[in-house]
What does this fold into?
Amino acid sequence: MNVASIAASATIMTQAQTQSQASMLVMRKALDLAGQQGADFAAMIAQAGGVGQNMDVQA
It folds into this structure.
């Protein structure tokens, strides 16, 4: 193996690691956002005070 191929391999591995880390950060942010939206929705339903829990069948 020559020095150029070792350097190229190291560069490729570094780029792959950087892309992997960036993908994980994006995924974590998306999961955090989805969790916050779910919590907000649950709080909104709790504050509704029974709205939508009864149905008028005498239409």
Observations:
- The mean pLDDT is 88.
